[in-house]
Here is the input.
Amino acid sequence: MRKSLITLTIMCALCSIPSLSGRDSTARQSPNPVSTEPRSYLGFDRNTYPGDAAIPTLGKTFSFTGYWLNTPPGETSNTWRGKREILNSNGFGFLLLFNGRLYKDLKSLALARNIGNRDAAAAVASAKREGFPGGAIIFLDQEQGGHMLPEQRAYLHSWIDGIIAAGFRAAIYCSGIRATENGEGGVITANDIRDGAQGRSIAFFVYNDACPPSPGCATAANPPSPPQSGVPFATVWQFAQSPRRLEFTAKCAAHYDADGNCYAPLFTKSNAVEVDVSSATSPDPSSARR
Here is the structure.
C-alpha cells in the first residue's frame, strides 16, 4: 500500500475593556483556549511489520497503526499476523486493512460478486482470529482509482454487504486525488464509490500526498484533519508515502529524507523505520481496541 495534522487553534486575544468606573480592566483569557476544529490523531502504516523492538519508540509519535488482515500488496506473506497484543499493550489504536482485488481479477459481474463475498468472509475470519471485536471497522484496500467499472462496483458492494452482515463495519481505502481520464481531469475515486454506494454506510480512508494539501512527511502532534485532504467525509487521510511520489510531492520535497522516504522520528539511521503517515478523527480509527 503506497498511499498521515496541523489543526489551527484560534486563541481569543486579550482585550482591554474600559470599566464603568473609567479605569481599564483586562478581560480574562481562558487558560485552555478552545480549538475551532476537532482533534486529529497521527498514525502510520506499512506493508511489513516494523518489528517488536520498534513498537515502543513508534508509540511515542503515533496514536494508531495500520494492521493487515491478509497479505498486503506486493508481499508474499502477512508479517502483521499475531501482533495485535503487543500493539494493544503499547497503547496503539488500529486501522484494520484488507487487501482487495484488482480489476483484472474480476472477469464478470457474477464472479466479482462471488469473490467479494469470499473476501468479506476471509476478512471477518481473520479479524476474529486476530482477536478484534465485532463491530470493528475493516478497510478494503482499493488500489485502482477513477470511475469504478461495473465489475469493480459489484465486488465492492458484495464485500461491503458481507462485512456488515457478519456484524462488522465496512470501509474503503482509496484515492482522494482527482484522477486523469482520457487526458482530462476526472473523478475523485472516494466520491465515485460513495455516490454509487446505493445507500450503504461506508467509512473512507483516502490517500492524497499531493503538496498541497499534504504537508509532506510531517509528524506534528496535532496533524491536519482528514477533511483537509479534499474529501470532506474522510475519517482517515494518508498524506505521506514512502517512498515519495515525485509527481505529487515536488513542492514539499524537503520534508522527506534525501532518499525519498518518510522516516519515523526518534530512530537512528541504522534502525530507521520508513512509514506512510496518516491522520484520523479518532486515535482508534477501526474502533478495534478491546
Residues 2-31 have pLDDT under 50 and may be disordered. The chain has six helices and twelve strands. The first helix runs from residue 55 to 58. The first strand starts at residue 16 and ends at 18.
